[in-house]
Amino acid sequence: MKENIKSFEEFYPFYLKQHSHKVCRLLHVVGTTIVIALAITAVYHNEPILWFFVPIAGYGFAWVGHFFFEKNKPATFQYPLWSLRSDFKMYFDIVTGKLSLDSSKD
């Protein structure tokens, strides 16, 4: 993994390179959608137990994408906060059409 990244603006392009496989990106979208749904449901129904499943859903789908499709180590191990921010940025960029699941079209 690249060392000495000093800003989010420098990190995000690196993050996207670590998420170039379309199945990995799709799994991130699925996991993040479930995370958002769990968080909304937990708040709306006042069900604190649902918060337990948020990291399982988010990391579970993402790590399958990395270990089986990208075959790389998730950036969250070295840059946890920027990775979390990047995941939501990538998610919203994909669902709004600013970014494709197919990285060759970016």
TrEMBL record:
InterPro entries: Mpo1-like. Keywords: Membrane, Transmembrane, Transmembrane helix. The chain crosses the membrane at residues 26-44, 50-69. The keyword Transmembrane applies. Signal peptide: none annotated. Coiled coil: none annotated. Pfam families: Mpo1-like (PF06127). This is Mpo1-like protein. It comes from Lutibacter aestuarii.
